[in-house]
Specification:
It is built from 11 helices and 19 strands. It starts with a strand and ends with a strand.
Length: 371
């Protein structure tokens, strides 16, 4: 079967042939892969910044944003059946007895660092025709979501981040009074840094929860990303013409910053404008660059005197996938066509070089193996 894979030892990327995987246990499920999203992680692996093949193998099949259809199930599978659409969990437990999170199915908080991730670290990914995995890592998707279900994995980043935020903010009287149909966050203001898929999906989740939402990104105010932000009721501000100081002046007290850029300089500049009782969520992972100068005295004073919280979040648990699938349906109901407009390109596997080594543009591009 065909698979898009890197061979780190040779620094090669190619469309390779792999044997079709068999069912090995009674709870295994075989999928025919339909679509796989491409993100910055995949491109960094293709630049050989990281990425580890399975033990004893030279190549690593790419891809962690998945959508597949069940074609075969083991004798003890009960969660899915042939014909079902599913999205896969990416991270797998480290298996070490001292790791409490992994033992409780929360490998997204693994303490040892010995976890594995499909398409990234130690396990083949989903950019291939067939995949076999255990049913416990599969999340069923309604057929009606077929056109947008591949967005579930990037949405889990926001789902996990906001769930943690609500838990943290329960330490103070932060919930909005009389939320009702307005949403739980209707009295709060959020700034999203970045208008890529993670940023725009985060903006959709914030808007669905009632937050007054501002999206700050480098694109112009008449770009497709700006128009999409307007469609969901967010305010788009272009970094090309609006300074962070102006942004903060327009927003007022910034209750929440959802960072989705991986740009550390911009993020720490924005942190200066975080408001009283505010929360700053990091989701991006910057590459190693030259050190930047940060006013640590100002940041520390604000974090203490304004009761602020700063935290990072990575990967997601199985419950976050369930929420993401439900919320994609909600987004499509609130703003018909908006989630689908995030997907701007579907590429045949043979076009892997254009997609992974080039710059095809758009917002979210996919490898499509087809139905």
């Amino acid at each position: 079967m065909k698979a898009i894979a890197v061979t780190p030892g040779k620094k090669q990327l190619g469309l390779l042939e792999f044997p079709e995987p068999p069912l090995r246990t009674p709870t295994d499920v075989k999928l025919r892969m339909l679509e796989i999203g491409v993100c910055g992680t995949d491109k960094e692996i293709c630049a050989f910044e990281y990425g580890t093949p399975p033990a004893g193998e030279a190549s690593l099949v790419l891809g962690h944003e998945s959508l597949g259809r069940v074609v075969e199930v083991g004798a003890k599978v009960t969660a899915v059946k042939p014909g079902d659409l599913v999205v896969m969990v990416v991270r797998r437990p480290c298996g070490q007895p001292q790791c409490g999170p992994c033992a409780q199915g929360r490998q997204d908080f693994c303490e040892t660092g010995a976890f594995k991730e499909r398409g990234i670290n130690g396990l083949h990914g989903f950019m291939t025709e067939k995949v076999v995995d255990d049913e416990k890592y599969m999340n069923p998707v309604p057929e009606a979501l077929r056109p947008i279900a591949v967005l579930a994995e990037p949405l889990t980043i926001a789902e996990k981040g906001l769930e943690q935020m609500w838990q943290i903010q329960s330490r103070l009287p932060w919930d909005c009074a009389h939320a009702g149909a307005q949403g739980r966050g209707h009295c709060h203001r959020a700034v999203v840094l970045g208008a890529g898929p993670v940023g725009l999906l985060g903006a959709m989740l914030l808007r669905s929860q009632g937050f007054e939402t501002f999206v700050y990104s480098k694109e112009s105010g008449d770009s497709p990303k700006a128009k999409l932000a307007a469609q969901i009721g967010a305010t788009f501000l272009s970094g090309a013409s609006v300074s962070l100081d102006t942004l903060a002046g327009q927003v007022g007290n910034v209750d929440l910053v959802y960072e989705a850029t991986g740009a550390s300089r911009l993020s720490y500049e924005m942190m200066k404008y975080l408001g009283t009782n505010g929360v700053f969520i990091f989701t991006g992972v910057p590459g190693r660059k030259a050190p930047i100068e940060v006013d640590t005295d100002l940041l520390m004073r604000d974090q203490v005197l304004k009761n602020q919280v700063v935290f990072g979040t990575v990967n997601a648990g199985k419950a976050d996938y369930g929420k993401a699938i439900q919320d994609l349906a909600l987004f499509d109901k609130l703003w018909p066509g908006a989630p689908a407009s995030l997907i701007t390109g579907r590429f045949a596997p043979e076009k892997f070089a254009d997609l992974l080594l080039g710059d095809p543009g758009g917002i979210k591009n996919l490898v499509a193996f087809g139905d």
